[in-house]
Design goal:
With 234 residues, the chain is mostly helical. It has four helices and four strands, in the order αααββαββ. Helix 1 runs antiparallel to helix 2.
Length: 234
């Protein structure tokens, strides 16, 4: 076998190792996604409650403004009632006073209800935050394991890529460029041996003259059937 082809086969072997490491790294993603989904479910509920609290606090500020306005009206109605001098004025002032008392009472009741609502939501939030802390504590070991696996795979990948780069330096540039173009498309099995008269990847027959020229030159060629590169072993 021609030394250039041997060198390219070494590169392909390194690429296969890199692909395997990439697949291992990709396999971590679903496990991390499952952890994130569990955590995110609780976290999104907390965010929703925070939004509700902000909304209720805004309503509470508005209700306090109404309480203040109605209390001012009540005080004015009380003064008017106390200053009347005739029964007719007293009746009108009394009606006005009762109306303003009712308005003030309703606005205070509304404000109190909002405060109670905020308290309930804050209680729910506290429970969910505790649940989130429990989830994070329970996941800490799994996340640490994932981080450790990722770091180990990335270290292996760096070593494998460095080895691949060193092997690639022994391959003629034109041959390596051709191989890399095929490799990007096919990944594994980019370079295959001729098996008898055919491409071993797809069994497409290769003309005798082409096989002879390939063996003499120690080069690689692209299969018209499957697009893989092939070489002659002898």
């Amino acid at each position: 076998m021609h030394p250039d082809v041997q060198a390219l086969l070494a590169v392909q072997a390194d690429d296969v190792q890199v692909y395997a490491l990439e697949d291992r790294l990709a396999s971590l993603a679903p496990r991390l996604a499952a952890l994130e989904k569990e955590r995110g479910k609780v976290s999104s509920q907390i965010d929703r409650l925070r939004g509700e609290i902000a909304h209720e606090e805004s309503r509470h500020r508005d209700s306090l403004g109404r309480v203040e306005t109605h209390n001012a009206l009540l005080a004015r109605s009380q003064r008017q009632y106390e200053s009347v001098t005739s029964p007719r004025e007293a009746a009108a002032a009394s009606t006005q006073l009762e109306q303003t008392k009712r308005m003030a009472s309703e606005s205070e009741k509304e404000a109190g209800g909002i405060v109670a609502r905020i308290g309930d939501i804050r209680h729910q939030q506290a429970e969910l935050e505790k649940a989130l802390a429990d989830v994070e504590e329970r996941q800490s070991t799994a996340r640490a394991e994932l981080d450790g696996e990722r770091a180990a795979i990335e270290a292996e990948m760096a070593t494998a890529k460095a080895k691949r780069d060193a092997a690639a330096s022994a391959v003629p540039r034109a041959m390596l460029t051709t191989y890399d173009k095929v490799r990007v498309r096919k990944r594994e099995n980019s370079l295959v041996v001729l098996r008898g008269q055919s491409c071993s990847a797809c069994n497409t027959a290769i003309p005798t003259q082409r096989r002879a020229a390939l063996a003499a030159a120690g080069n690689v060629a692209m299969c018209e059937g499957c697009g893989a590169l092939f070489y002659a072993a002898e």
